[in-house]
Amino acid sequence: MPFTLKTGGYFMPLGFGPLGGQKVCHYGDVTTLTVLYLTDKDALAALLPEPFQPADEPVVTVWCQVCRQVDFMAGGGYNVVGVNLSAVFNGKKDHFLGNYAAILWENDTIPIITGRELLGAPKLYADVPDPQQEGNDWRFHCSVYGTRLVEGTIKNAAPVDEATRREIERIAKAGMWMGWKYIPKADWSGAEVSFPTCIPNAPTVNQAWLGEPSHRFFETSWADSLYHSRVMAGLRTLPPKEYRAGVITKGTQELLVAESRRLE
Asked: Which of 42, 174, 232, 236 is surrounded by the most beta carbons within 10 Å?
C-alpha cells in the first residue's frame, strides 16, 4: 500500500519518511568577511520584491562565511558568498528593518536544499574556497564552471578594542534577515508557492578586525555561467558610491529555524 504523509518535516524524496524537525541549527565555528558599501537607492529598490522597500541608507553587504562545526552536517561545514540588500518590510502585520537576501552561493548541496525549500533563502551552488590571508590582507571569491562571479578584499585589517567588538556584535544581532520562498508551477505558468520569509539567527562575535574594503561583481555570459549570468547582470546595477566598512569576525551562530516563518 502507498504510504501516507504524516505531520512532520519532509524533504524530497518523500517515500523514505520525514527527516524530523530540528528547531535550532548550531554553528560552532564561524568566520565572516563583510564588505559594506552605499549604492544608488533606486537601483537597490529595483531588486526588491514588494512590499520590501530600500532602507533609508541603501547599503549593499557582500559577505563570505566559513561555517564549521555545523550540527546538522554532523560537525562538518561549508562556505558561503552572499549579497544582502538593506531593506524594510512593511506588510499588513509585520514591520522589520534588516537585510533582504538577494543571493547566496554555497559549496555544498545539503545547506542549499534545506535553505531554499525550508527557509526561502535564494541559494545556488558555486565553488567557494576558503578566504586567503596574506599578512593583514584578506580576500575571498566564488566561481562557477571556472568563471569568477564575485570577489571581495579587506586590506590592512587590524583587531578592534572590546567596546568596538561589542558594538559589532550588537549590530549583527539587531537586523532581521529576510528572504522570499518561491517554487514555480511545473509548467512555468506561475507560482506554486510565493511569499516573503524571515529567518532569525543569533550570532556571537568573539574576535573582530576592521580594514579597507573593496569588491567586484564580474560580467559573465550565459555560455560562461548559465543562469548565474542574470544574477550578475542584476548585481552590476548596484554601483559603489561609498565604502562603509570592511569587517572580519570570528564566533558562533545559531539559526533559529523554529522562529522562521512567512511574513504577513
From this structure: 232
- The topology under which CATH files domain 23-262 is Acetoacetate decarboxylase-like (2.40.400)
Taking only the tens place, the pLDDT of each residue in 112-138 is: 999 999 999 999 999 999 999 999 999
> Strands 95-106 and 176-184, how do they pair?
parallel
Q: How many CA atoms lie within 13 A of 167 on its CB side?
A: 8
Q: How far apart are the first and last CA of the chain?
A: 40
What is the Cα–Cα distance from 153 to 145, expressed in whole angstroms? Answer: 22
What is the C-alpha to C-alpha distance for residues 45 and 32, in angstroms, rounded to an integer? 26
List CB contacts of 64: < 8 A, sequence separation 6 or more: 32, 33, 79, 80, 81, 82, 128, 131, 140, 142, 152
Q: What's the pLDDT tens digit per position in 33-51?
A: 999 999 999 999 999 999 9
Q: What are phi and psi of 185, to 5 degrees?
A: -65, 155
Q: Calculate mean pLDDT across residues 206-213.
A: 98
Q: Which three cell numbers stand for residue 223?
A: 555560455
C-alpha cell of 260? 522562521
Each domain of the chain, given as residue ranges in start order, spans 23-262
